[in-house]
Predict the structure.
Amino acid sequence: MGDYLAAVMTEPMDTGDAALHERVDALIAAVGLTDAASITDVLTAVSHERGRALELEPMPEEMESGDVFGLCLPYEDRDVILFRTGAGSEHELHSTLHECGHLLFGHVAETGQPATNPLSRLLPDLDADLIAKVLARSAYENEQEREAELFAMKVRAVIAAAQRRRGDAILRRFDDALG
Amino acid sequence: MLLTVAVVFWLAAIVRAWRWRQAPGSPSLRAIAIALLSIAVALTLDLPAVQRLLTEGPLQSGTPDNVADLGKQLAIVTGAWACQSLLLHLTRGAAVTAESERSRARLALAVAVVSTVIYLVPLVDPSTARDPDAGIAQPFITESRLLVLVYAGTVLFFVMRLCWTHTGSGSLGSGVRVMGAGCGVMVAYAITRMTYFAVAHYGSTQLPTLYRAGDLLQVLGLTLIAIGTLIPRVGRTLASHRARRAYDQLEPLWALVTQRVPQVVFATAPDRDVTAWQLDRRVIEIQDALVVLAGSLDLPPANDRQDGAAAARLAAALADAPRSTRVVVGGTATDNTGVSPIAPPEGTDPVSWLVQVSRALPRVATRDGSPKETR
């Protein structure tokens, strides 16, 4: 993981929206996603930054529960993102990007002991230590969730703009000049 | 006609200058703003009323070596230099060096100095006096104009080539294409003018038809360039209006679902493009809430009367939307095609689909005799 990411994780969090935007913008720039043209670019960046494989899978039906839209499972040798299906491809993309945001920020679960972690009921077969690290996309009650959600919002906008410009860097600059 | 073109160009120039003020750090925005302002000034100096004012006014500059004519040439050189800078920043982006900027500035400066010196030769050498019968093709002025035309025409050719090889979709793509077409017409204008001056001066014959054709090409080319630069901005404004309308239309659905699943609301202020952000947020929050509520849509209404009524209205509204036939409240789903009841059909824009669901809410409320209010 780069120096910038390490610095971001150790700095005290400013809960103001402006500071939140700044942190997310800085992360997107630091991992080279300002020109991301597809989810593949983002997944590649996550895998590169974390130095391990990243797998993306739909959430199994038996794990679908309540307001959990995505899960991020940091195994020893790889990361696995599970995304909730049902509300369309845009929603799946958003949930996946949210989990990518957690991985890039290096967030860790704040839910305390594995035994009391509500996710343990979703993942009964998983190791308790791993469950303690699992991050789920649900509500935005803490700063980690807000960072990951803002990351998803911004990167989705970058991808949408890139698709309009068909990945053409010159057209992106035309957009800056004429937009 | 020239006045209309000048007005359109000033409009385009002011819009770009205003955008440049908003984003002063964008070199390509600066370049296009300077280019448009320069050409707007050149067009204004070409207006007969302005020429007359400068000729008869306190400057007493005389014709044809007048201040307006010379000023127009210098404005064109400035515009061409800005176009060169635009080309540089569009093609190289962050890799542009100060030296590459300077080399283009030096070229423009050389053209400006040489063309001005040539233009002013008759003022210091009486033996090269104007020939009143030669009309516009005067000695030295012709050479000066040819130099400026070659420089500006070459730059416009490269802008045209760049525009035609980088066409995107939507209003940006349309704007770039129209701008490229305008540059192409202006290249044709430069060729007709060069031909006219060369023939009129060195061939000692006038080609008035060619000159008039050049006038028409100039009007058409400049109009296309100005409109091309305006199209993306107009497109963004229209998109913003559409986003605002969709945002308002989603209000009933958003209020209904977030009342039941309030934790999906993400209250963070946007840092740019407020309307697009708000709409995007609203769509995601609705989709999140629908994912949570989807499981309860096929179940009989809950004991809680208010909750049950809300679920029934939501399910009915989803059922009203295209191909969302799987939703059945208080019964068994009849359609087993695997189509998600909370997702738009394949290929449908999710925003317009959710708007349809939201607009169906008041209808189903009325039909069912349920509460008329949707909030």
